[in-house]
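Morning - iron/sulfur cluster inputs below, output right after.
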Amino acid sequence: MPNIFDEINALKEEIRDRLSSKLSKKEIREAVHDPHAHRRPRPCGLTVHTGIGCPLRCVYCYIYDMGFQHNIRQYPLSPEQLVYALASNPYFIPGRNGTLIAMGSVTEPFLPQTKDLSIRYIEAITKYLGNPIQFSTKMYIDKRDAWRIADIDPDISPLITIITIKHRVELEPYAPLPELRFRTIENLLEAGLKPILFYRPIIPGIAEEEYEEILVRAKAAGAIGVVAGGLRVTKNILSRLSEKGVPVKEILRRMTGPLHDNEQAPVMVSDIKMRIKDKALSLGFIFFSQACMANIYTHGMYCLRMVVERTVSARFNLPSSTEIENIVKKAGLTPIRIRFTRYTLIVRVKEPCDKVRKFLLQELIKYRYKICVSIKCEKT
Ligand code: SF4
Protein backbone atom coordinates (compact mmCIF):
# COMPACT_ATOMS: atom_id res chain seq x y z
CA MET A 1 0.00 0.00 0.00
CA PRO A 2 1.47 3.44 -0.91
CA ASN A 3 2.26 5.58 2.09
CA ILE A 4 0.01 8.64 2.50
CA PHE A 5 3.05 10.82 3.10
CA ASP A 6 4.86 9.85 -0.14
CA GLU A 7 3.03 12.48 -2.16
CA ILE A 8 3.80 15.24 0.35
CA ASN A 9 7.44 14.25 0.60
CA ALA A 10 7.81 14.14 -3.19
CA LEU A 11 6.31 17.62 -3.46
CA LYS A 12 8.66 18.98 -0.81
CA GLU A 13 11.63 17.40 -2.57
CA GLU A 14 10.56 18.97 -5.85
CA ILE A 15 10.38 22.40 -4.17
CA ARG A 16 13.84 21.94 -2.66
CA ASP A 17 15.18 20.87 -6.07
CA ARG A 18 13.79 24.01 -7.69
CA LEU A 19 15.53 26.12 -5.06
CA SER A 20 18.83 24.33 -4.83
CA SER A 21 20.06 25.86 -8.11
CA LYS A 22 19.51 29.31 -6.56
CA LEU A 23 21.28 28.57 -3.28
CA SER A 24 24.90 27.78 -2.47
CA LYS A 25 25.80 24.69 -0.42
CA LYS A 26 26.42 26.94 2.58
CA GLU A 27 23.01 28.59 2.19
CA ILE A 28 21.32 25.19 2.01
CA ARG A 29 23.17 24.07 5.14
CA GLU A 30 22.01 27.21 6.98
CA ALA A 31 18.43 26.60 5.85
CA VAL A 32 18.26 22.98 6.99
CA HIS A 33 19.78 23.83 10.36
CA ASP A 34 17.41 26.72 10.94
CA PRO A 35 14.53 26.26 13.43
CA HIS A 36 12.03 26.81 10.57
CA ALA A 37 13.17 23.42 9.26
CA HIS A 38 12.38 21.70 12.58
CA ARG A 39 9.73 23.64 14.46
CA ARG A 40 6.38 21.97 14.99
CA PRO A 41 3.36 23.95 13.85
CA ARG A 42 1.23 25.40 16.62
CA PRO A 43 -2.58 25.18 16.50
CA CYS A 44 -2.62 28.52 14.59
CA GLY A 45 -0.14 27.12 12.04
CA LEU A 46 3.60 27.36 11.58
CA THR A 47 5.07 30.60 12.88
CA VAL A 48 7.47 32.32 10.50
CA HIS A 49 9.85 34.79 12.09
CA THR A 50 10.87 37.78 10.02
CA GLY A 51 13.10 39.31 12.68
CA ILE A 52 14.74 38.53 15.97
CA GLY A 53 13.75 40.70 18.93
CA CYS A 54 11.34 43.64 19.00
CA PRO A 55 11.93 47.28 19.97
CA LEU A 56 8.25 48.09 20.62
CA ARG A 57 8.37 46.81 24.22
CA CYS A 58 4.65 46.31 24.72
CA VAL A 59 4.28 45.94 28.47
CA TYR A 60 2.18 42.77 28.21
CA CYS A 61 4.53 41.07 25.73
CA TYR A 62 5.97 37.67 26.66
CA ILE A 63 8.83 37.55 24.14
CA TYR A 64 11.32 39.20 26.49
CA ASP A 65 10.84 36.37 28.99
CA MET A 66 11.61 33.97 26.15
CA GLY A 67 15.03 35.55 25.76
CA PHE A 68 14.33 37.98 22.91
CA GLN A 69 15.95 41.40 23.09
CA HIS A 70 14.65 44.97 22.86
CA ASN A 71 16.40 45.48 19.57
CA ILE A 72 15.59 44.00 16.21
CA ARG A 73 17.62 42.37 13.52
CA GLN A 74 16.37 40.90 10.32
CA TYR A 75 15.92 37.16 10.30
CA PRO A 76 19.12 35.75 8.80
CA LEU A 77 17.53 33.58 6.09
CA SER A 78 16.95 34.88 2.57
CA PRO A 79 13.40 34.32 1.24
CA GLU A 80 14.58 31.32 -0.81
CA GLN A 81 16.35 29.88 2.21
CA LEU A 82 13.22 30.30 4.29
CA VAL A 83 11.19 28.34 1.73
CA TYR A 84 13.92 25.70 1.60
CA ALA A 85 13.77 25.43 5.40
CA LEU A 86 9.98 25.06 5.37
CA ALA A 87 10.16 22.44 2.63
CA SER A 88 12.66 20.54 4.83
CA ASN A 89 10.46 20.66 7.93
CA PRO A 90 9.09 17.13 8.57
CA TYR A 91 5.82 18.54 9.96
CA PHE A 92 5.15 20.97 7.12
CA ILE A 93 2.58 20.36 4.38
CA PRO A 94 2.96 22.61 1.32
CA GLY A 95 0.08 24.03 -0.69
CA ARG A 96 -3.19 25.86 -0.35
CA ASN A 97 -4.60 22.98 1.66
CA GLY A 98 -1.42 22.73 3.66
CA THR A 99 -0.01 24.18 6.87
CA LEU A 100 -1.26 27.64 7.80
CA ILE A 101 1.51 30.22 8.13
CA ALA A 102 1.48 32.92 10.81
CA MET A 103 3.86 35.89 10.81
CA GLY A 104 4.22 38.16 13.81
CA SER A 105 4.17 35.83 16.80
CA VAL A 106 7.53 36.79 18.35
CA THR A 107 8.30 40.04 16.59
CA GLU A 108 6.65 42.83 14.65
CA PRO A 109 6.89 42.02 10.93
CA PHE A 110 6.42 45.56 9.58
CA LEU A 111 9.12 47.47 11.44
CA PRO A 112 11.27 49.59 9.11
CA GLN A 113 14.08 47.04 9.60
CA THR A 114 11.93 43.99 8.77
CA LYS A 115 9.18 45.21 6.46
CA ASP A 116 10.98 44.58 3.21
CA LEU A 117 12.12 41.11 4.23
CA SER A 118 8.60 40.25 5.46
CA ILE A 119 7.12 41.19 2.10
CA ARG A 120 9.81 39.19 0.30
CA TYR A 121 9.04 36.21 2.56
CA ILE A 122 5.36 36.53 1.64
CA GLU A 123 6.34 36.66 -2.02
CA ALA A 124 8.57 33.58 -1.85
CA ILE A 125 6.06 31.53 0.16
CA THR A 126 3.32 32.44 -2.33
CA LYS A 127 5.52 31.65 -5.33
CA TYR A 128 6.98 28.32 -4.23
CA LEU A 129 4.55 26.94 -1.67
CA GLY A 130 1.11 28.57 -1.95
CA ASN A 131 0.23 28.08 1.74
CA PRO A 132 -2.29 30.44 3.37
CA ILE A 133 -0.44 33.29 5.12
CA GLN A 134 -1.57 35.48 8.00
CA PHE A 135 0.27 38.36 9.61
CA SER A 136 -0.39 40.39 12.72
CA THR A 137 0.89 43.93 13.09
CA LYS A 138 0.71 47.17 15.02
CA MET A 139 2.67 49.15 12.44
CA TYR A 140 1.31 51.68 10.00
CA ILE A 141 1.04 50.12 6.54
CA ASP A 142 0.77 52.86 3.94
CA LYS A 143 -1.22 52.62 0.72
CA ARG A 144 1.81 51.71 -1.37
CA ASP A 145 2.75 48.77 0.84
CA ALA A 146 -0.87 47.69 1.15
CA TRP A 147 -1.09 47.44 -2.66
CA ARG A 148 2.29 45.74 -2.81
CA ILE A 149 1.11 43.05 -0.39
CA ALA A 150 -2.25 42.69 -2.13
CA ASP A 151 -0.57 42.28 -5.52
CA ILE A 152 1.55 39.44 -4.18
CA ASP A 153 -1.15 37.66 -2.16
CA PRO A 154 -4.71 39.00 -2.52
CA ASP A 155 -5.99 36.39 -0.04
CA ILE A 156 -3.53 37.12 2.75
CA SER A 157 -5.07 37.40 6.21
CA PRO A 158 -4.11 40.72 7.86
CA LEU A 159 -4.66 41.05 11.62
CA ILE A 160 -4.32 44.59 12.95
CA THR A 161 -3.74 44.68 16.70
CA ILE A 162 -5.58 47.36 18.67
CA ILE A 163 -6.39 46.62 22.31
CA THR A 164 -6.34 50.07 23.89
CA ILE A 165 -6.65 53.70 22.90
CA LYS A 166 -6.67 55.34 26.34
CA HIS A 167 -3.81 53.35 27.83
CA ARG A 168 -1.61 53.07 24.81
CA VAL A 169 1.17 55.26 26.24
CA GLU A 170 1.53 53.04 29.31
CA LEU A 171 0.99 49.72 27.55
CA GLU A 172 2.46 50.19 24.07
CA PRO A 173 4.89 53.08 24.52
CA TYR A 174 6.82 52.61 21.29
CA ALA A 175 4.12 51.28 18.98
CA PRO A 176 2.43 53.50 16.38
CA LEU A 177 -0.68 55.33 17.57
CA PRO A 178 -3.97 53.42 17.32
CA GLU A 179 -5.04 56.23 14.93
CA LEU A 180 -2.42 55.02 12.47
CA ARG A 181 -3.50 51.42 12.90
CA PHE A 182 -7.08 52.34 12.01
CA ARG A 183 -5.58 53.96 8.91
CA THR A 184 -3.73 50.71 8.20
CA ILE A 185 -7.12 48.99 8.19
CA GLU A 186 -8.42 51.58 5.70
CA ASN A 187 -5.40 51.18 3.42
CA LEU A 188 -5.57 47.39 3.42
CA LEU A 189 -9.27 47.47 2.64
CA GLU A 190 -8.71 49.93 -0.19
CA ALA A 191 -6.11 47.55 -1.64
CA GLY A 192 -8.77 44.83 -1.77
CA LEU A 193 -7.66 42.88 1.32
CA LYS A 194 -9.83 41.74 4.22
CA PRO A 195 -8.41 43.46 7.32
CA ILE A 196 -9.40 41.99 10.67
CA LEU A 197 -9.18 43.59 14.09
CA PHE A 198 -6.90 41.58 16.37
CA TYR A 199 -8.13 42.11 19.93
CA ARG A 200 -5.38 40.26 21.70
CA PRO A 201 -4.45 40.23 24.50
CA ILE A 202 -7.69 40.98 26.29
CA ILE A 203 -6.44 42.64 29.48
CA PRO A 204 -9.02 42.45 32.28
CA GLY A 205 -9.60 45.85 33.83
CA ILE A 206 -8.66 47.58 30.55
CA ALA A 207 -10.68 45.78 27.89
CA GLU A 208 -14.06 46.22 29.59
CA GLU A 209 -13.89 50.00 29.44
CA GLU A 210 -12.57 50.22 25.87
CA TYR A 211 -13.77 47.39 23.68
CA GLU A 212 -16.94 49.09 22.46
CA GLU A 213 -15.12 52.17 21.19
CA ILE A 214 -12.37 50.11 19.55
CA LEU A 215 -14.88 47.89 17.76
CA VAL A 216 -16.94 50.84 16.54
CA ARG A 217 -13.85 52.58 15.20
CA ALA A 218 -12.46 49.44 13.57
CA LYS A 219 -15.81 48.94 11.86
CA ALA A 220 -15.81 52.52 10.60
CA ALA A 221 -12.28 52.01 9.25
CA GLY A 222 -13.44 48.95 7.30
CA ALA A 223 -12.36 45.89 9.30
CA ILE A 224 -14.46 42.92 8.24
CA GLY A 225 -13.95 40.73 11.28
CA VAL A 226 -12.61 40.42 14.80
CA VAL A 227 -10.27 37.88 16.34
CA ALA A 228 -10.16 38.14 20.13
CA GLY A 229 -7.79 36.26 22.36
CA GLY A 230 -6.55 35.91 25.89
CA LEU A 231 -3.67 37.09 27.98
CA ARG A 232 -0.75 35.05 29.23
CA VAL A 233 1.37 36.46 32.00
CA THR A 234 4.72 35.86 33.63
CA LYS A 235 5.98 37.34 36.91
CA ASN A 236 7.78 40.04 34.90
CA ILE A 237 4.69 40.93 32.89
CA LEU A 238 2.65 41.22 36.07
CA SER A 239 5.15 43.54 37.71
CA ARG A 240 5.43 45.69 34.55
CA LEU A 241 1.63 45.94 34.31
CA SER A 242 1.42 46.83 37.99
CA GLU A 243 4.05 49.58 37.56
CA LYS A 244 1.90 51.05 34.77
CA GLY A 245 -1.16 51.18 37.00
CA VAL A 246 -3.07 48.24 35.52
CA PRO A 247 -5.34 46.62 38.19
CA VAL A 248 -3.29 43.45 38.56
CA LYS A 249 -5.57 42.23 41.34
CA GLU A 250 -8.23 41.51 38.72
CA ILE A 251 -5.70 39.58 36.61
CA LEU A 252 -4.57 37.56 39.63
CA ARG A 253 -8.16 36.75 40.50
CA ARG A 254 -8.60 35.31 37.02
CA MET A 255 -5.51 33.15 36.96
CA THR A 256 -6.12 29.43 36.83
CA GLY A 257 -2.82 28.25 38.30
CA PRO A 258 0.33 29.39 40.09
CA LEU A 259 3.10 31.39 38.41
CA HIS A 260 6.53 29.80 38.04
CA ASP A 261 9.49 32.00 37.09
CA ASN A 262 9.33 32.88 33.38
CA GLU A 263 6.62 30.39 32.55
CA GLN A 264 3.58 31.89 30.88
CA ALA A 265 0.31 31.36 32.71
CA PRO A 266 -3.12 31.88 31.11
CA VAL A 267 -5.62 34.37 32.49
CA MET A 268 -9.30 33.48 32.28
CA VAL A 269 -11.03 36.08 30.07
CA SER A 270 -13.77 34.06 28.38
CA ASP A 271 -16.53 36.25 29.86
CA ILE A 272 -14.95 39.41 28.40
CA LYS A 273 -14.34 37.62 25.11
CA MET A 274 -18.05 36.78 24.95
CA ARG A 275 -18.94 40.43 25.48
CA ILE A 276 -16.55 41.44 22.69
CA LYS A 277 -18.11 38.78 20.48
CA ASP A 278 -21.66 39.97 21.16
CA LYS A 279 -20.75 43.57 20.41
CA ALA A 280 -18.79 42.56 17.29
CA LEU A 281 -21.75 40.58 15.95
CA SER A 282 -24.15 43.43 16.69
CA LEU A 283 -21.93 45.71 14.59
CA GLY A 284 -21.96 43.27 11.68
CA PHE A 285 -18.44 41.87 12.08
CA ILE A 286 -17.56 38.26 11.48
CA PHE A 287 -16.26 36.99 14.81
CA PHE A 288 -13.46 34.42 14.79
CA SER A 289 -12.78 32.65 18.07
CA GLN A 290 -9.33 31.57 16.81
CA ALA A 291 -6.81 33.36 14.59
CA CYS A 292 -6.46 30.32 12.28
CA MET A 293 -10.14 30.68 11.34
CA ALA A 294 -9.47 34.17 9.97
CA ASN A 295 -6.63 32.80 7.86
CA ILE A 296 -8.82 30.06 6.43
CA TYR A 297 -11.66 32.54 5.86
CA THR A 298 -9.72 35.12 3.84
CA HIS A 299 -8.52 32.25 1.66
CA GLY A 300 -12.12 31.43 0.76
CA MET A 301 -12.40 28.32 2.93
CA TYR A 302 -14.06 27.33 6.19
CA CYS A 303 -13.60 24.65 8.82
CA LEU A 304 -15.96 22.49 10.87
CA ARG A 305 -15.52 24.65 13.97
CA MET A 306 -16.52 27.76 11.98
CA VAL A 307 -19.73 26.00 10.97
CA VAL A 308 -20.41 24.72 14.52
CA GLU A 309 -19.78 28.18 16.01
CA ARG A 310 -21.82 29.81 13.22
CA THR A 311 -18.91 31.97 12.09
CA VAL A 312 -20.10 31.09 8.61
CA SER A 313 -23.36 29.71 7.49
CA ALA A 314 -22.54 26.66 5.39
CA ARG A 315 -22.99 22.93 5.19
CA PHE A 316 -20.08 20.75 6.23
CA ASN A 317 -19.56 17.29 4.85
CA LEU A 318 -17.86 15.23 7.51
CA PRO A 319 -15.51 12.53 6.26
CA SER A 320 -16.73 9.03 7.04
CA SER A 321 -15.02 6.88 9.65
CA THR A 322 -13.98 4.48 6.89
CA GLU A 323 -12.26 7.31 5.01
CA ILE A 324 -10.35 8.35 8.13
CA GLU A 325 -9.54 4.74 8.97
CA ASN A 326 -8.03 4.25 5.49
CA ILE A 327 -5.89 7.38 5.83
CA VAL A 328 -4.63 6.26 9.24
CA LYS A 329 -3.71 2.87 7.78
CA LYS A 330 -1.99 4.50 4.80
CA ALA A 331 0.07 6.48 7.31
CA GLY A 332 1.32 3.17 8.68
CA LEU A 333 -0.66 3.42 11.92
CA THR A 334 -3.34 1.09 13.27
CA PRO A 335 -6.64 2.75 14.13
CA ILE A 336 -8.52 1.55 17.21
CA ARG A 337 -11.37 4.04 17.52
CA ILE A 338 -12.57 7.08 15.58
CA ARG A 339 -15.11 9.51 16.97
CA PHE A 340 -16.21 13.13 16.74
CA THR A 341 -16.79 15.42 19.67
CA ARG A 342 -18.39 18.84 19.00
CA TYR A 343 -15.84 19.91 16.40
CA THR A 344 -12.83 17.70 17.06
CA LEU A 345 -12.04 14.36 15.51
CA ILE A 346 -10.48 12.00 18.05
CA VAL A 347 -8.49 9.15 16.60
CA ARG A 348 -7.05 6.46 18.85
CA VAL A 349 -4.24 4.44 17.32
CA LYS A 350 -2.27 1.45 18.52
CA GLU A 351 1.18 1.86 19.99
CA PRO A 352 3.96 1.91 18.93
CA CYS A 353 3.38 5.11 17.03
CA ASP A 354 6.17 7.21 15.64
CA LYS A 355 5.88 10.81 16.92
CA VAL A 356 6.66 12.57 13.62
CA ARG A 357 4.31 10.33 11.69
CA LYS A 358 1.53 10.85 14.24
CA PHE A 359 1.91 14.63 14.18
CA LEU A 360 2.12 14.81 10.39
CA LEU A 361 -0.98 12.66 10.09
CA GLN A 362 -2.78 14.99 12.48
CA GLU A 363 -1.79 17.95 10.30
CA LEU A 364 -2.75 16.16 7.12
CA ILE A 365 -6.25 15.28 8.31
CA LYS A 366 -6.70 18.73 9.84
CA TYR A 367 -5.86 20.61 6.66
CA ARG A 368 -7.34 18.19 4.14
CA TYR A 369 -10.75 18.09 5.85
CA LYS A 370 -10.59 21.38 7.80
CA ILE A 371 -11.34 19.79 11.13
CA CYS A 372 -9.55 19.94 14.49
CA VAL A 373 -7.91 16.56 15.14
CA SER A 374 -6.39 14.86 18.11
CA ILE A 375 -4.56 11.57 17.62
CA LYS A 376 -3.85 9.56 20.74
CA CYS A 377 -1.60 6.52 20.94
CA GLU A 378 -2.78 3.68 23.15
CA LYS A 379 -1.54 0.34 24.38
CA THR A 380 -4.14 -2.30 23.67
S1 SF4 B 1 4.92 44.51 18.89
FE1 SF4 B 1 4.42 42.40 19.35
S2 SF4 B 1 6.39 41.35 19.56
FE2 SF4 B 1 6.79 43.58 19.69
S3 SF4 B 1 6.77 44.02 21.85
FE3 SF4 B 1 4.70 44.41 21.09
S4 SF4 B 1 3.58 42.46 21.43
FE4 SF4 B 1 5.79 42.01 21.58
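Note: Residues 6-308 form a domain with the pyruvate-formate lyase- activating enzyme fold (CATH 3.80.30.30).

O.
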